[in-house]
Amino acid sequence: MFDGAGAPAVVADVGITGDRVIAIGALGGAEARRRLDVSGRLVCPGFIDVHSHSDAYLLIEPSAPSKIHQGVTTEVVGNCGASAAPREGAYRMPSDWRDKPYPASWRTVAEYRRLLEQAQPAVNVALLIGHNALRAAVAGYDDRPLSKDERDCACRLLEQAMEEGGRGLSTGLIYPPGMFASTDELVALASVAGRCNGIYATHMRSEGVRLIEAIDEALAIGRGAGIRVEISHLKTSGRRNWGKLDQAFERIETAQAEGIEVAADRYPYTASNTDLDAVFPAWAQEGGRDALLGRLHDATDRARLRADLARSRTDEEWGAITIGSTWAPGNRRFAGMPLPEVARILRVDPIEAVLRLVEKDELRTGAFFFGMSEENMERILSRPYVMIGSDASIRAPTGPLSEDYPHPRAYGAFARFLRLALDGRATPVEEAIRKMTSLPASHFRLRDRGVLRPDAMADVVVIDPRTVCDFSTYAAPHRLAAGVDCVIVNGTMVVENGRLTGLRSGRFLAAD
Known about the structure:
Elements: E1 13-17, E2 20-25, E3 42-45, E4 47-49, H1 65-68, E5 72-77, H2 95-98, H3 109-119, E6 124-127, E7 129-130, H4 131-139, H5 148-163, E8 168-172, H6 183-195, E9 199-203, H7 211-225, E10 228-231, H8 245-257, E11 262-266, E12 271-275, H9 282-285, H10 289-297, H11 299-312, H12 315-319, E13 321-323, H13 339-346, H14 350-361, E14 366-370, H15 374-382, E15 386-388, H16 409-422, H17 429-436, H18 438-443, E16 460-463, E17 484-489, E18 492-496, E19 499-500
């Protein structure tokens, strides 16, 4: 048994009554309604996915198969500035959420929470409030500073969302309209979240060329707002930026020494995944979806966009892009195909291929961006303050969540990281488990979770160390992980003998 706090494994029984762990030790003589023999298995707290995008999808597929089969028992959703709630004003949810069938409509966090509780998810859910939702609600997708009244309105909207169950503020500063926000605006909003004991989680303005400046801004927001900081999916993107990692570590660790509570998360892969139109410059994205599509149709704007894209990436970097999910029937054949191959088939250069795909898909094209260092990835994963986040929504091998082309991290991030540890890479096993349990529970203030001790919540995972493995790949993404024998969420057996039981006992984890 691993306690989740980083201690070496011990041989012990775990006693559960109701939704709590009540005893740990030699419990052979204790009365029990049911006993499980898990000899030779790893027993540990349920894993916490601190960087999830499952907000809306949990209303569609509450059994959460891609995550629960990895041992994930809690998801922190609402990341990268995009949350399922609140939905006010001009805010539009991410494109992959918008075309799905939901059981009902919602607007506020309270309404979303009620729907989620009615769906009875298999996993616990903690919701961050997306900055894009707040800014779009008061100012749309315009590239301009907020007026005082607009900023005050956004702050009131965030305060209401926190009162209704939000756990903090998230930003996605490469996406509209978040990319148009000033640091002062972010400090003002983060201060509201901080007063509610929330956290500030940020997809920074840059993870490559301006990585260090972006870290400096995140830390400045933490200082200015007096709030805990989570740097989302810490990475050094692009070969020319691999050498910046030591400087990034130095910035973070100096801030920690100053008393700022800052940590980070990472997935164990060297390709990122987001919408392909994320490569477009800010001027092209101002005004939102319809404005961007209009610019793609305008000859002058399209020529300007081509020129800006040509300057933004090297030929090597364009060649490191693979197409993910597509939407238009004519584009389906390109899912999983490297961009240079798409360009060859279309008989155009890679930049024109990007423009055509995005235009035809109406901004619903996904992409994998290869360009991270394996060595840097392992160094990041080994840092004591770096936890694991999938950066993915739940998926399922069948049904409406099986029809896209996701990054394999959706099905494999936690199983893959544990396999790395068991094979002697990245970190020792007890440290790997701490990074997936007590570390995120502590930083996100998820009380009584992430540890195995008496009176802790009974989120427990039983894993076969011989077989735990991720099977999802870039070529065949919709494949469940293996080796997770049992998953217990709030004292209820959700997975038994590697199969879903049909029981779901997750909870919405509002702030204390």
